[in-house]
Write a structure and sequence with these properties.
By secondary structure, the protein is mainly α. It has a single domain, classed as Farnesyl Diphosphate Synthase, CATH 1.10.600. It has 15 helices and two strands. Strand 1 and strand 2 form a beta hairpin. Helix 3 packs antiparallel against helix 15.
């Protein structure tokens, strides 16, 4: 896995800056009532982060020749859902984390009730963005498809279901197949949705290309979570912006805990290669932005 191309790093930075502006413009003004709730929403969303999911939306659009102005809404919607999940996951009833992105978590900076409401409001804002917000194709059919994709990725067959399985697995012994199935829901589903939502905004996309993009997204989604598990073991808390060793402390059955560090690293490499192979079979003219995204995700140290 070589160093990221300079041109991709430049594009990545541009995508990250673009979505920061888009998110800030779509969030409620903190000066309007209820001020504390709006402050908590903005605190949680605009508190930094790599913006992996919006970048993946933009990279897919780049590959498919879709104007970024037609996927800004999708990029914001997936990030609103992601941040809502983080706010709720950090709560004492879930992971009970005190730091997120190097700052106090939402319930620490405000209070638990406000954090719950901020997460609720961000989830609603995500779907409002897809239904009536700017930065998407005008087609009602396309917007309905985007709502459906994001709902599937967020519900019991996706992120929420994966989190439920994760909580139920504390202190339990799981097989690698069970861990991968849990990861595919908890993390992979929303990452997959980023690619498929951008694809839904493309015109006349061949079915074979859509199947290949789905395989790519499924592979990098699982690789991303296994890499996350590895970082919890090997990562630097100062770089990550959150405490490490949490999985071990909670006795979570993670991929490294069950298969070992070497096997987990090998699985990440295998999934990366599978993602690249899927792109190679897609028939798309230039898949380099998505290939570079996969490299970035699996080589990250934060």
């Amino acid at each position: 896995m070589q160093t990221l191309p300079v041109d991709f790093s430049t594009r990545l930075g541009a995508w990250q800056r673009r979505v920061e502006e888009q998110l800030a413009a779509r969030l409620p003004d903190a000066r309007t009532e209820p001020k504390r709730l709006h402050e908590a929403m903005r605190y949680s969303v605009l508190g930094g982060g790599k913006r992996v999911r919006p970048a993946l939306v933009y990279a897919t659009a780049d590959v498919l020749g879709v104007p970024l102005t037609h996927v800004d809404g999708a990029a914001c919607a997936v990030e609103f859902i992601h941040v809502y999940s983080l706010v709720h996951d950090d709560l004492p009833a879930m992971d009970n984390d005190e730091l997120r992105r190097g700052r106090p978590t939402c319930h620490r900076a405000f209070d638990e009730a406000t954090a719950i409401l901020a997460g609720d409001a961000l989830q609603v804002l995500a779907f409002q963005t897809l239904v009536s917000g700017p930065g998407l194709p005008d087609s009602a059919q396309v917007r309905l498809r985007l709502v459906d994709l994001l709902a599937q990725a967020s519900g019991t067959d996706g992120m929420a279901g994966g989190q439920a399985l994760d909580l139920a697995a504390l202190g339990q012994e799981l097989s690698l197949a069970e861990i991968e199935a849990m990861h595919a829901r908890k993390t992979g589903a929303l990452i997959r949705a980023c690619v498929l939502m951008a694809a839904a905004c493309a015109e006349q996309l061949a079915e074979s290309a859509l199947v290949a993009l789905d395989e790519y997204a499924t592979s990098i989604g699982l690789a991303f979570q296994i890499q996350d598990d590895l970082l919890d073991v090997e990562g630097d808390a100062a770089v990550l912006g959150k405490a490490t060793g949490a999985d071990l402390a909670l006795n979570k059955p993670t991929y490294p805990a069950v298969a070992g560090i070497a096997a987990a690293r090998a699985r990440v490499r295998e999934l990366h290669e599978r993602a690249l192979a899927a792109l190679g079979s897609s028939g798309l003219a230039n898949t380099e932005p998505l290939a570079a995204m996969s490299h970035w995700l699996v080589a990250r140290r934060s």
